[in-house]
């Protein structure tokens, strides 16, 4: 890594030059690049010395998979599902759901739509290029390009679908119809998950929904091009999500890893399954009962890898509502661990800080 700090290297200039192409990482790959530029060099992580694939302990972990079949068919089935949601949210901060109600055809078309968007000629994509997240549709590479210590091998299209969805004509033609359909399905699933989270906390099923935890929905289509030197960079650096919770659709390539008991555990790309993870804001309002866990995406020589993340938060259009630990969860023995904050304050801090390997929650600790 010594070469990354030699006198001929100006990181700021290289970041600006990369950004101004508006072609993203895909543009580098399409240009035939065979070496990863230094702006993408990953930071060393001591945890990489402990790979789950190399230890007997890691091999013993089974990533939680929750079957939602029967969630509305009786109290016994629902109670079993709620128990699994509680355990996974407390121990892992992550789980997969199957039989979630979103048709396989819609999942496939959503992935295809993201693929079509990124495979368009650059001039069409440039129409959506921006770093102004007040816009309904934003395409760029690395939301924190200028603030994070290491750029990621990934391009993204952000679409704000709630509370104020774009007009159909404002959406990219390559994925317009499926974005509208998928966001409706994702919102239905999101509201069901909020019921399950609420009941898992011992609250009324509508408690979290009534707190507007599903008011905002941002769909992020990620495109991870094949990488010539995957050992030098990451598709996404170690981070926790800044929302209430995330629902992720990923393709067959894999690469998502969760930090569990100080080890990186692979999240299996199960056909038809969706990955659910707790975000920082849900950890904050549950007073650490549910955990927002660090995760990352490794780079790969094959690709592109496609994933679609549904972020439940008004992150791109924050409201002034204040969120603090839920009073019903507090007691003399379990006092509030966080001060109140607004989604705007939290998301501004998260964006300014960038993905730097530290938790954004630390700023809000009491």
Fold and architecture overview:
There is one protein chain. Strands 1-2-10-7-12-5-4-3 form an 8-stranded mixed β-sheet. The chain has a 4-stranded antiparallel β-sheet with strand order 6-11-8-9, with no helix packed on it. A two-stranded antiparallel ribbon has the order 13-14. It has 366 residues and is α+β, with helices and mostly antiparallel strands. It has 10 helices and 14 strands. The protein has a single domain, classed as B-lactam Antibiotic, Isopenicillin N Synthase, Chain (Jelly Rolls, Sandwich). 29% of the residues lie in helices and 19% in strands.
Any chance you could write out the topology, listing elements then pairs?
Layout: H1 11-21, H2 24-30, H3 56-59, E1 65-67, H4 75-91, E2 94-98, H5 104-119, H6 122-126, E3 137-140, E4 155-162, H7 176-200, H8 207-210, E5 217-224, E6 234-239, E7 245-250, E8 256-260, E9 263-266, E10 274-278, H9 280-285, E11 295-298, E12 305-312, E13 322-323, E14 341-342, H10 343-353
Parallel strand pairs: 1-2
Antiparallel strand pairs: 2-10, 3-4, 4-5, 5-12, 6-11, 7-10, 7-12, 8-9, 8-11, 13-14
Cofactor: Fe cation
GO molecular function, one term: metal ion binding
Domain Fe2OG dioxygenase: 215-314
């Amino acid at each position: 890594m010594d070469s990354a700090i030699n006198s001929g290297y100006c990181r700021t200039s290289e970041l600006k030059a990369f950004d101004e192409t508006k072609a993203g990482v895909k543009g580098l790959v399409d240009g035939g690049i065979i070496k990863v530029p230094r702006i993408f060099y990953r930071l060393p992580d001591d945890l990489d010395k402990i790979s789950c694939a190399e230890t007997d302990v890691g091999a013993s972990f089974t990533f939680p998979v929750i079957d939602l079949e029967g969630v509305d068919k009786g109290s016994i089935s629902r109670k079993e599902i709620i128990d699994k949601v509680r355990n996974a949210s407390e121990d892992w901060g992550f789980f997969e759901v199957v039989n979630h109600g979103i048709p396989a055809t819609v999942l496939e078309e959503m992935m295809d739509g993201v693929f079509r968007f990124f495979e368009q000629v650059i001039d069409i994509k440039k129409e959506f290029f921006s770093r102004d997240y007040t816009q309904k549709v934003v395409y760029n590479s690395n939301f924190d390009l200028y603030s994070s210590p290491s750029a990621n091998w990934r391009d993204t299209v952000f679409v704000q679908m709630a509370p104020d969805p774009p007009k159909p004509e404002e959406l990219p033609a390559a994925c317009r119809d499926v974005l509208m359909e998928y966001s409706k399905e994702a919102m239905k699933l999101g509201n069901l998950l909020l019921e399950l989270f609420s009941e898992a906390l011992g609250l009324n099923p509508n408690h979290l929904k009534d707190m507007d935890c599903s008011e905002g929905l941002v769909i992020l289509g990620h495109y991870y091009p094949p990488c010539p030197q995957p050992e030098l960079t990451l598709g996404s650096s170690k981070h926790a999500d800044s929302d209430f919770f995330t629902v992720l659709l990923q393709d067959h390539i894999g690469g998502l890893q969760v930090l569990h008991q100080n080890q990186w555990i692979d999240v299996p790309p199960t056909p038809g399954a969706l990955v659910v993870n707790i975000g920082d804001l849900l950890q904050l309002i549950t007073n650490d009962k549910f955990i927002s866990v660090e995760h990352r995406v490794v780079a790969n020589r094959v690709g592109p890898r496609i994933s679609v993340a549904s972020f439940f938060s008004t992150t791109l259009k924050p409201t002034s509502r204040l969120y603090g630990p839920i009073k019903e969860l507090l007691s003399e023995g379990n006092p509030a661990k966080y001060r109140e904050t607004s989604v705007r304050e939290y998301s501004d801090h998260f964006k300014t800080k960038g993905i730097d390997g530290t938790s954004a929650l630390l700023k809000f600790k009491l």
